[in-house]
Amino acid sequence: MxxxxxFLYSLPLVCLFFLLYKxxxxxxxxxCYILNYQCYKPCDERKLNTEFCGEVxxxxxxxxxxxxxxxxxxxxxxxxxEETYAPWMxxxxxxxxxxxxxxxxxxxxxxxxxxxxxxxxxxxSPRDIDVLVINVSMLSTSPSLASRVINKYxxxxxxxxxxxxxxxxxxxxxxxxxxxxxxxxRKNVNALVVTSESLxxxxxxxxxxxxxxxxxxxRSGGCAMILTNKVALxxxxxxxxxxxxRTHHGAKDEAYGSCIQTEDELGRVGFHLGKNLPKAxxxxxxxxLKEISPRILPVRELLxxxxxxxxxxxxxxxxxxxxxxxxxxNFKSGVDHFCIHTGGKAVxxxxxxxxxxxEYDLEPARMTLHRFGNTSAxxxxxxxxxxxxxxxxxxxxxxxxxxxxxGFKCNSCLWEVLRDLDDGNCWKECNIDxxxxxxxxxxxxxxxxxxxxxxxxxxxxxx
Length: 463
Description:
By secondary structure, the protein is α/β, with parallel strands linked by helices. It has helices at 2-29, 50-58, 65-76, 88-91, 100-122, 145-153, 171-183, 209-217, 253-256, 277-296, 299-317, 345-355, 359-372, 379-389, 444-448, and strands at residues 33-39, 131-136, 160-164, 190-196, 222-228, 239-248, 259-263, 269-273, 337-340, 398-405, 409-417. InterPro entries: 3-ktacl-CoA_syn, ACP_syn_III_C, FAE1_typ3_polyketide_synth, Thiolase-like.
């Protein structure tokens, strides 16, 4: 009788402990870890130095003196250096008529390099991959790029694939969000995320200034990374995802049209970067920060900002007010490192000003823009690689990523560093000790500054 009573009394406790175990075990398997990542560094033959850029501009027959002056101003102020990379069709002088095979070659060179290296780093084989997510915004093939990767690496028949196009420069965080969602419903999953952009079919050869600008900023690059929710692999992981927030302003016409692929008056396809782009980016950033701030900042900082904001509003509304300084939230109270999308010098400066960041905080983004240019969705990972090469990451540090993309979108996330890192990734071969250089001034003005003094009626580009 006593045993029966003991069993009856113990049964609810056993059930409670079982339920608690299931909840804890489920949460453990929902964590999203990065095992490793590999950024792509093309060969030196694909570099766009000042001399070669001049040749590319000269052979673009649709440009006149006014366009040359605009290009010079844009390139000089872009923050891009002489060691960025272009696709082979530009190097070979075929930007007027690139072929489908040119675009495939650009992607396959990147796939073979980065995927092979990240698999080697993690010790996994292609058949260990359960989920494959590829994002390349402006190239859609049939079969898909994901199918090409599966065919090349002979992955399993049950691998789940996602092939994203048209998602812009913020697509890598969208890909990670897809993986994060899968991890919440499936245990013991390895995911390969491949992020890049295809410049080959999207190099603009017209004379529309808003579309010429894209040629000055976008460069070849890409990154492959392996994520997992396997608890057994946690000790091998380098980052843990803490939270991720996505903001989309596509319903607003002004934001939607600020950054869009379109045709010019003569039917040439290009990527339009509108004058209202900074405003659209600012609004998307503000809305994104409003949502993610409570998740990543300590309560004391949120309370401090709330009190100061209330006092500011009271002072502004009073008759004697108007001179008070608007309070700023201190993101450094909950973040150790800032990984900013290299959309251009103005983008980096704008985010730095909005978040109250120092030059030390902005250095990784500036150096990535200078060395690799805007590599679209993969640019965040080059910034991450710079910080790793500089040995900035220590166990327990928190890394805040911010990216923008056409649509218009702003996506951000927070990572926790799981161990001290110093691998360096693709920056290993870049002589990292020479960064940052004493000056970021590029030699374009020195070599082509004479264009500013030319007269349109007598101008002729020297042979």
